[in-house]
Amino acid sequence: MPDLPRAGRGRKRVVSSTQRVWTFAEECELMCALKDLVVKGNKCDNGFTSSYLLLFENSLAIKFPGTDLKCEPHINSNIHVWKRQYVCLKNLLGISGVDLNSTTYHVEALPEVSES
Is the overall model pTM greater than 0.85, yes or no? Predict the structure, then answer.
């Protein structure tokens, strides 16, 4: 059986020369800025206010001076990836017998769920 790539932070990303890879600290700061935006009430019924990407860009520029992160394509693209991953995880956790281990943050399934 061939060795499969490991999931998680140890996996190397294959990127083209034009694609920018986010650092862990940059992603953490973007998540903090997203949480701050919700706490401050900049959220409307079906999303965020129109200037939310600029607020994220400014927050990242303060935390990481000289960064090349821009609203488009960097921040918007990363948020879309997060949304797609969230929907997949939400659907997976909606299956009976599948749960999230709160200490290791691994998705766990009962044996009968794994076999089907």
Answer: no
